[in-house]
């Protein structure tokens, strides 16, 4: 792991040590109240839009973008939702990304779309800190423990997003019960970003699904700045995109989100008839869109 990632993990361990809540039952989401991210993504695909998970991101380890207190987080998330974002990602890591649990809680109160908690999860106590619909679980951080954390998240009513960065991690994630497979285009060892990661790994997920009768949702993460970038990873096989920096740094969060959501409209054959039929059947059979 890159030095920066190790620093983040060390600080996360300190945070975990300070958690005192009775995590077993505190903040647990009733399963019938969870906002269904899979159905929401499939619905966007049927409509011909790119399912964009837009991120409330105050900073990255190398740069602070803006101060985002809880009230502002909710305002920003509302703009993203109105622009067509399929879900909202909220950073909760406080030191390097300047996020907070209060930001996530405020956002989830104000929007109707699913909300993702984005943080470095290393201990089961973190799964009880707050309510969310989706939770990021990083395969490179959890390793062989990923399956355990996936099952814990599901038991608590959250949809786990199993993030991967290479083929080895992808095989670990695919062996779990996670429906959402994240492909991070950022390498945690070099911190370099390349959309080629999605181009290489997405077809491997499709191959796995064809061979095992499964149906994973692929989410491409990091390095997506333009409509061309969005189309590139969608055409490579991604179902949805997690976009933070490009949106939060733009002069107009609403219009930048809308631009990326609609980036596929001018491209033919977004979803062929058979794909659309399959997606429509999924959505119509879901009670939570």
Strand order of the largest sheet: 1-4-5-6-7-8-9-10
For the secondary structure, the number of strands is 10
User: Helical proportion?
Assistant: 40-55%
Rg for CA atoms: 18 Å
- The CATH class is Alpha Beta
Q: What's the end-to-end separation, in Å? A: 38 Å
Q: Assign the CATH topology.
A: TIM Barrel
How would you describe the shape? globular
Which sequence of SSEs, written as H and E, runs from N to C?
Answer: HHEEEHEHEEHHEHEHEHEHHH
What ranges have pLDDT less than 50 throughout 5 or more consecutive residues? Answer: 266-276
- Please, what is the average pLDDT? 90
Q: What's the number of structural domains?
A: 1
Assembly type of the chains comes to: single chain
The biggest sheet, with number of strands, parallel, antiparallel or mixed sense and barrel status, is: 8 strands, parallel, barrel
Number of helices: 12
* Estimated share of beta-strand residues: 5-15%
CATH superfamily: Aldolase class I
**Structural class per helix/strand content?**
alpha/beta
Architecture, CATH level 2? Alpha-Beta Barrel
């Amino acid at each position: 792991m890159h030095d920066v990632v190790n620093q983040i993990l060390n600080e996360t361990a300190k945070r975990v040590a300070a958690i005192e809540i009775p995590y077993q039952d505190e903040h647990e989401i009733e399963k019938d109240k969870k906002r269904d991210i899979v159905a929401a993504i499939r619905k966007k695909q049927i409509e011909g839009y790119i399912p964009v998970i837009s991120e409330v991101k105050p900073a990255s380890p190398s740069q602070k973008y803006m101060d985002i207190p809880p009230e502002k987080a909710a305002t920003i998330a509302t703009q993203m939702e109105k622009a067509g974002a399929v879900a909202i990602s909220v950073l909760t890591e406080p030191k390097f990304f300047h996020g907070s649990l209060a930001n996530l809680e405020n956002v989830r109160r104000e929007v109707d779309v699913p909300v993702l908690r984005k943080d470095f999860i290393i201990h089961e106590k973190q799964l009880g800190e707050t309510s969310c619909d989706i939770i990021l679980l990083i395969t490179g951080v959890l390793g062989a423990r990923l399956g355990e954390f996936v099952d814990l998240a599901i038991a608590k009513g959250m949809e786990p997003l199993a993030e991967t960065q290479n083929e080895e991690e992808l095989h670990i994630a695919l062996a779990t019960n996670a429906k959402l497979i994240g492909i991070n285009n950022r390498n945690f060892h070099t911190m370099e970003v390349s959309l080629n990661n999605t181009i290489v790994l997405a077809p491997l997920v499709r191959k796995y699904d064809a061979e095992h009768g499964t149906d994973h949702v692929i989410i491409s993460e990091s390095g997506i700045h333009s409509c061309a970038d969005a189309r590139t990873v969608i055409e490579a096989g991604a179902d949805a995109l997690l976009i933070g920096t490009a949106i939060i740094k733009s002069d107009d969060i609403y219009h930048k989100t809308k631009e990326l959501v609609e980036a596929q409209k001018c491209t033919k054959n977004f979803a062929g008839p058979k794909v659309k039929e399959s997606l429509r059947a999924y959505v119509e059979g879901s009670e939570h869109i």
